[in-house]
Amino acid sequence: MHQQSETTLMRRMKFRLLLNQISKFIFMLSAFFGLFFLVVLLVRVVSEGIGAINIDFLTGKLSTQPERAGIMGAILGTFWLMLVVAPVTMFLGVGTAIYLEMYAKKGKLVGFIQTNISNLAGVPSIVYGILGLTVFVRVLDLGSVVLAGGLTMSLLILPIVIVASQEAIRAIPFQLSEASYGLGATKWQTIQRIILPAALPGILTGAILSLSRAIGETAPLVVIGIPALLIPFPGGIMDRFTVLPMQIYYWTLDASLVAEYANLAAATIIVLLVALFVLNSTAIIIRNKFQRVF
Q1: What region holds the ABC transmembrane type-1 domain (predicted)?
Q2: Is 240 helix (H, G, I), strand (E, B) or coil?
């Protein structure tokens, strides 16, 4: 009887070890599968676009002639768009998270709000474009300007920042807050001097992910009527503009008629990837600095 149970145990152990090896192989294959196609995509983009990148391309205006086309207008438009999106999203997102976690009384209403915020993070981006077109472009009569585009993109990424900020605040040990209250600090002083500095790395992580999504989105901007035409360089938030993803989209369409536009689209993708890399690297450095401090 003892020998039989030992034999059964050994069989189960061998089966589990085999299952572990199979699972490990499948997961490794999945990782290499995604990595392979990412490398293929990057190699193709770089090989097609690196030759088109030069000073004239980076500083020139849009043109109907591929050899004279530049993306400075799209670069400036992307810069102005992020100049609207970043402060609006951080102020509203972090403020909402602080209210829900620190001030709002737990109940059905707060639960309903939090459930809807989580659901909004999965809404297709084109729906936010329709909302931006209705509210900002038509009702507020802003037109297809930087401010309307920035507010629309802020709505798109706001749920991500709220959820990430809430999780960062919840991760702070409650003993820190209790110690602050015990020393006579008010709730706002505790939030300002204890909770926010300690939660800042997590908040910045959410901001990194959300801004990276916003800088690469195209569908909402297409819906609100952002052009990719020969328009002047934007000089403020009330100017008409275009952005790098929009330029990539239209040049990709034009590549079916003029082959040179495919190289211009690939070159613009490289510029956008570099911008994303710089943005993410800067934010990660800032986040790591605060993690070491707190």
Answers
A1: 75-282
A2: strand
